[in-house]
Automatic annotation (TrEMBL):
<comment type="similarity">
    <text>Belongs to the metallophosphoesterase superfamily. YfcE family.</text>
</comment>
<keyword id="KW-0479">Metal-binding</keyword>
<dbReference type="InterPro" id="IPR000979">
    <property type="entry name" value="Phosphodiesterase_MJ0936/Vps29"/>
</dbReference>
<dbReference type="InterPro" id="IPR029052">
    <property type="entry name" value="Metallo-depent_PP-like"/>
</dbReference>
<feature type="domain" description="Calcineurin-like phosphoesterase">
    <location>
        <begin position="1"/>
        <end position="151"/>
    </location>
</feature>
<dbReference type="Pfam" id="PF12850">
    <property type="entry name" value="Metallophos_2"/>
</dbReference>
<protein>
    <recommendedName>
        <fullName>Phosphoesterase</fullName>
        <ecNumber>3.1.4.-</ecNumber>
    </recommendedName>
</protein>
<dbReference type="InterPro" id="IPR024654">
    <property type="entry name" value="Calcineurin-like_PHP_lpxH"/>
</dbReference>
Amino acid sequence: MLVAVLSDTHAPRHWKGCPAEVAKHLRGADLILHAGDVCTAAVLDELSAFAPVHVVLGNNDGPDVAAWGAPETVELDLAGLRVAMIHDSGKADGRPARLRRRFPDADLVVFGHSHIPMDVVGAGLRIFNPGSPTDRRRQPHATMGTLLIEDGTLVEARLIEVT
């Protein structure tokens, strides 16, 4: 299973439409995870043309994103891998242990909010932030992620520069 991972698209201010480099990585994805701050449900409709979408509510998301189906957290079984998703994981200090307590059954937690791409293992948990494909803030590149999952195992997690 190939999963494309996005966060913090911030439409329409930063996402005017799916960037070509992002679309390249969405094609062929079995599923898309969006870790919040979509800002408008139209982005979710656009992403749904590539693959089914699971999204969580970000701090900048409005009622239209919630109505589209974005809860505060999501817990999924993806090809046997237990994946949780939340927008804001809190401060960096103690993050893996805090997310382990919040999602005790998860193998992987996907989050956003900081716009800082990250793939870290700690407290018996892998945590993954794809960064932002449109609003890099102080990062050198805009980014997204992909996850390759086979038989309950995360075979590969990639952070991809899209600018």
